[in-house]
Amino acid sequence: MEKGSSKAASSFLAAYYDPGVSVRDFDPSEIEKVERDRLRLLYHVALAASQIPRRLGSDAEGTELSQDKKRCRRIAHVAAQCHTGWGGDITKGTVKDVKKEAAQVVWDKWWEGHSVTLQNRITYIATWGVDKTPLQQRWAKSAIVKLLNELTWLQYAMR
């Protein structure tokens, strides 16, 4: 069973592998911490943004304001769920003051950059994991699934 699951992980990783990507060796716990910190910050920004009345400005229409509040809540929910998936507790840990960032975030522009960032992370982890041990390959596959879930859930949240 070990060899079969290793081959499955390897073929899964091959779908996202890019030989042109230069990777350094890393400890998976480093990536997990970075992901938890990133998601904790996103959660707090989205939560803070949802609590700012008329965040989009005085000329924004009711439908725009409603859509923004809905996106804020959805994005905060996705961040909390993904954070838990990486083994974290969203209520623990400190976050810098995010009021300014929350007031200025434009979700459509944020999404354009964030989706690219997630795709790059997927490629990087897959490229790192292809030639690793079966245990490391399984970790890489798991990490990619978590990032793909985040990508899909955020895409849904942005509708």
In words, what does this structure look like?
The chain has about 160 residues and is an all-alpha fold. The chain has one domain (about 1-155). The chain contains 6 helices and no strands. It has helices spanning about 1-15, 30-50, 60-85, 100-105, 105-130, 135-155. Helix 5 (about 105-130) runs antiparallel to helix 6. The protein starts with a helix and ends with a helix. The relative contact order is 0.19.
Topology:
Blueprint: H1 2-14, H2 28-50, H3 62-85, H4 99-104, H5 107-129, H6 134-157
Helix pairs in contact: 1-6, 2-3, 3-6, 5-6
Brief characterization of the structure:
The protein has helices at 2-14, 28-50, 62-85, 99-104, 107-129, 134-157. By secondary structure, it is mainly α.
Extract low-pLDDT stretches.
Answer: none
Mean pLDDT: 91
Count of all domains: 1
Number of helices: 6
Multimerization state: single chain
Task: Tag the structure with descriptive keywords.
mainly alpha; single chain; 159 residues
